[in-house]
Amino acid sequence: MFSCIVWPSEIIDGYAVEATAALAQLDQSSPEAAAWWRANAAGVTGPGRYLLFHGHVCEVV
Fold this sequence. Notes:
single chain; 61 residues; alpha+beta; 2 helices; 3 strands
């Protein structure tokens, strides 16, 4: 878990997950949602990109 400062001045505690790994997991539970991300947010879901998930919506496994 880490904290990130975003504009406007907000600190977010959360988990950074490699985007392609997150989409691979999403493919398992909701292929339609994963397809939407690939079609509509390709610029933030490619290799070397990370998605930040708020800590309060995550479960460490």
